[in-house]
């Protein structure tokens, strides 16, 4: 008698998928990364929401993520105010967003990612952001987003997910981060938009 086939739980499937997709994007060459960023930036420039936005949250790319530095430079050139996430020092699992300029003093957080030094005078309430570009590990055909599992952006975008108010969330990813169907948990809420080098994905 054959052993019954092992069926992974959603959590196990999500963990394995994170590993696979992170390996794929880390394997991209420097040239592939450069071309991907150029194409993604072109798509971002086509978004009407970008043209009307004043306060835009982004993040500094790491771990093979789509390079956000040229996107940030473009926003600065357009006179946009750019904000980066900072891990909240007192509210576990939450983010603060701090104004980012070429002169901003930086520090390294517990995940070895550069973030602005905490300065309350440069913090913006999430409700005053116009757009939040979110990192992700994978996304699917319905706009579901798989992050690193910390839930930081789920909490940040809670009002949008519940009421449709607040900053517009836009995922950023390489094309290789698309999967047809993600193993979804009950708390997962789809993004309304994801930008990749090859396409602008929209969901209503």
Features:
single chain, 204 residues, alpha/beta, Rossmann fold, 8-stranded mixed beta sheet, two-stranded antiparallel sheet, globular
Write the layout of secondary structure elements.
Elements: H1 10-26, H2 30-45, H3 48-52, E1 55-57, H4 69-77, E2 81-87, E3 95-100, E4 106-108, E5 114-116, E6 123-124, E7 131-134, E8 138-139, E9 145-146, H5 152-156, H6 158-163, E10 168-172, E11 193-195, E12 200-202
Parallel strand pairs: 1-2, 1-7, 7-10, 10-11
Antiparallel strand pairs: 2-3, 3-6, 4-5, 8-9, 11-12
GO biological process, one term: tetrahydrofolate interconversion
Keywords: ATP-binding, Ligase, Magnesium, Metal-binding, Nucleotide-binding
GO molecular function, one term: 5-formyltetrahydrofolate cyclo-ligase activity
Query: What percent of residues adopt helix (DSSP H or I)?
Result: 25-40%
Which structural class best describes the helix and strand composition? alpha/beta
How many runs of DSSP E, i.e. beta strands? 12
Order of strands, widest sheet: 6-3-2-1-7-10-11-12
The succession of helices and strands, N to C, reads HHHEHEEEEEEEEHHEEE
CATH topology: Rossmann fold
Radius of gyration: 17 Å
Total domain modules:
1
* Overall form: globular
Distance from first to last alpha carbon:
49 Å
Mean pLDDT: 88
Per CATH, which architecture? 3-Layer(aba) Sandwich
Q: CATH superfamily, called what?
A: NagB/RpiA/CoA transferase-like
Unreliable stretches (pLDDT < 50, length at least 5) are none
Biggest sheet, open or closed, and with what strands and sense?
A: 8 strands, mixed
According to CATH, what is the class? Alpha Beta
What fraction of residues sit in β-strands? 15-25%
